[in-house]
Structure formats: structure tokens, C-alpha cells
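so my prof wants the structure for this chain in the C-alpha cells format not the other one, which i didnt know existed until like an hour ago. anyway here's the sequence
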Amino acid sequence: MYKRVRLKDTVEVPPEYLADVSPDLVKRLLQDKLEGRMDEEVGSVVSVIDVHDIGTGAVLPNRPGVYYEAEFDALTFDPEMQEVVDGEVVEVVNFGAFVGIGPVDGLLHVSQIDDEYLAYDEENQQLASRDSSRVLSVGDSVRARIVTKSIDERNPRDSKIGLTAKQPGLGKHEWLEQDRRRRAQQGQAGD
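here's what i got, hopefully its the right format
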């Protein structure tokens, strides 16, 4: 889930910029420092939006810059347990599919994609059913629910988000549309 949050952090202003410590400068420095970083409390910082307050600054021994505490708004992405998300398959492997959801990827394990067994087709980089025409490939849009979440602040790329698509209303968007059409046709046939 995306959120706009008010945060405080300290930023170092290098000596060459001390004559113009402005909200725009502090914003750029905060963007360089924080964007793409993961925090257990707020999630992944997507963007620093506005700087509201800049402190007076502090000099630290043996450090060239001046350190300013700033209060600012940031756009964050913090996936929540049981949240339903839409994403795009970015990689298919023998044990499932990685789905891009915001600035992170979640794993949709092969056992959590569909009730049908999907076999890995290494040559075509896809998961395919032997019983029907269902295929999951890179670029496919899917709807899934977050079932596990383990955030690694030091190495955000090592964070793990587990997904499931095994409930009504979840799965590959194309499959969901096919299911809707099938139900509509069955409803018309019953009239």
C-alpha cells in the first residue's frame, strides 16, 4: 500500500553547498539518501515529496559537512499482510513466478498460482497447465494476496514477500476474465 508519511531524518550538507541550504537542496540530498531504501516501520521510500522544516545544523568533529535535521513528507510503499495487489510477472522460474508489486517483487509459488498443476517450461520461460490452455509468462498481469512478509532493511533486495492467487477473484487477469465470461454464459443458459 502506498502512503504519504511525515518523517524526520538527518542529512549532511557538503561544504560547497552551505551558502544555499534551501528546502530544494535538502530535498535532493534526502532523495539521494533515502529513495529505494527499506525501513521496517514505513516500508520502502519511493519518493521524498516536500521538505517542511530544516533545523539549525550541527557540526561534527572530523566531518566536512554540516548535519541538518529535516522534517519532510515521503511517499512510501509498505505491503500489508492479506492486502490484495495487482502486479506484473517479471520472472518465471521452476518454483514459481516473481511478480512486481510497486518497488518490490513478490513470489507467487507454483503451488499458489492455480488449482491446476502448472509445469515449468524452461524453453519458453513460462508455467503451463497440462490439463488446459492456462499459461503464465513474463509480462502477464496478475491479482494476488500477500500472505508472508519479511523485510530486510540492510539489503532491501533480500526482502521476501509471499503471494497467493488460490482463491476466487485472484489469478492471472486473463483467466479471471475467462471465468467471468464462462459464468455469464452459464447464467444465460440457465434462463
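also thought this was worth mentioning. The chain has a mean pLDDT of 90.
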